[in-house]
Give the backbone structure.
Amino acid sequence: MPDVLWCNGRFTTTAERVIGVEDRGFQFGDAVYEVFKFTEHAPAFLSEHYRRLERGLREIEIGNPWRDEASFRETMREILERTEFGDGIVYIQVTRGEEERAHFWGENLQPTAIAYSRRYRFPDAARKERGIKVMTAPDLRWKQCQVKSVNLLANAIAKKKAQRAGADEAILIQDGVVREGASSSFFAVIDGRVITHPLDEHVLPGVVRDRVIDLAIAAHIRVDERPLREAELFHLAEAFVTSTTQGVMPVTEIDGRVVGNSRRGEVTTTLQQLFDALELNARGFAGSVRSS
Ligand code: PLP
């Protein structure tokens, strides 16, 4: 069953090669991306993904190929309408555009924008209970991690090393501080309090991260947005990572050492259940989960 690819306003499938070899996304990693989840053809947290994309484009001065959020939604609605499978992800990428290769870019360059739907096997109930093992790795990424740039070489290498060591995710450490996962936000639970890195240039503002913080606060679970020291990693009651594709995923082992009692913890279970319910209810094209 073919996926649906939208490229600069035209619909095709990923079987067609639509990107030029001198596109700056390909040559320089000069691009930002987004990934959102859909189930039963309904997207989750579309506004939140759009807002992050828009912010990223603005920060690195790439033009927004969509007039506004409504026109972005319209493109996504059409992709999902044309997609035959009901569950998957949509990957969106906006590059600075294509022109003769030079580090300086032309001022009137038209961005290249693509978005395509793809099947995705989201973790099942057993996986969500069993959790994952993680491995720590040095954070070798560029210094503007709040931008969801396509420069994922350091992330990919860290993740591959983790996989070769029998782990599922790499947790990136810089200057003795736990930043985040290679493709997830990281949370620790100590004394019943949930701890995660504050939003700054060291971490991506995860869509699920923000939802989980709101849910924790509403459930009267204390949240500390503070840098966690690497040494604290081995004294955690619970740990979990969050991402669009994994939701809230328990971490049961860090560098071969068991976290808590090696099972999904109580706080993690509560937040996982609350998040799954929110995601289900917030699905659709209606708007943001935030009233603001
Ligand atoms: N941090 C990094 C580096 C990521 O790549 C991702 C997702 O891909 C996340 C965090 C989680 O972000 P979100 O919850 O928006 O999927």
Notes: Residues 57 and 87 are 27 Å apart (CA to CA). The mean pLDDT is 96. The first strand starts at residue 5 and ends at 7. The pocket of pyridoxal-5'-phosphate is lined by residues 180, 183-185, 204, 206-209, 242-244 (CB under 6 Å).
